[in-house]
Specification:
Number of strands: 15
Structural class: alpha+beta
Bound molecules: succinic acid
Shape: globular
Radius of gyration: 18 Å
Order of helices and strands: EEHEHEEEHHEHHEEEEHEEEE
Largest sheet: 7 strands, mixed
Strand order of the largest sheet: 1-2-3-13-5-15-4
Distance between the termini: 33 Å
Strand content: 25-35%
Helix content: 10-25%
Length: about 280
Amino acid sequence: MALKKIDIEPLSSAMGATITGVDLSDNLDNETVDDIHQALLDNHVIFFRDQTLTPERHKMFGRHFGSLNIHPYVKGMADHEEVMEIIKEPEEKVNFGGGWHSDMSFLEEPAMGSILYAVETPPIGGDTLFANQHLAYETLSDGMKDMLGGLVAIHTAGEEYSRKGHSAQQRVSMDVKQIDEAPTYEHPVVRTHPQTGRKALYVNRGFTIRFKNMTRAESKPLLDYLYKHSTREPFTCRFRWQPGSIAFWDNRSVQHYALNDYHGHRRHMRRVTINGDRPF
Ligand code: SIN
């Protein structure tokens, strides 16, 4: 077997790995792209340090893995609509992504992956947590697995993006009417990863509102249990950002949470999101 060009160092026993030996601003050969893709499938989130990515190069890296998403509610950069800036200013209180979620589960075809690049990081705090949703599923009882296997959940962006706040994100968000009219989509509560065949829990506090054919009140107790279970500490890893760090996560396998513990400091990230398929 050919030796890999990249080095892969696991971050926690649940998930996550740091990759070295590659400059993502280079023109990557197919072998390196395949190795990075395999590392993503094996570890669910992969991290890189000391990278320099212009928005153009950020998009080029993302396009190795699929077409790029243009966010329906948050405007992208002026000359790069596929690149979303995630900025929290020192005086702001609300951050973007400050709750457990899987990116874009409110779309009919939710995002496959997200690639987040740190431009400016606070001297304290601002880490991101990730939780492995395969482990979350696999540690449920057989009875619970059987029951969830028959359930479908309803997802929408309407509630999360209409929360009032003062984040930089909301200053650039699209109009509220559009958010109020956000569509809902149905996804299986247990989804099968299209590449690995592994099952994962697929409900999240950010965008799931209820089970299909049930009221919100009926859905809430079980959803609350699943939200708590799916983000238990043994399923997680935590990433400390520095300028030039990159996290690339698989939204079909993980949820993530941007910690909001750095008031008085600026945090500036850029995200490229890779389109995915309809969950099954
Ligand atoms: C996000 O939810 O994509 C933001 C994550 C972060 O800023 O750490």
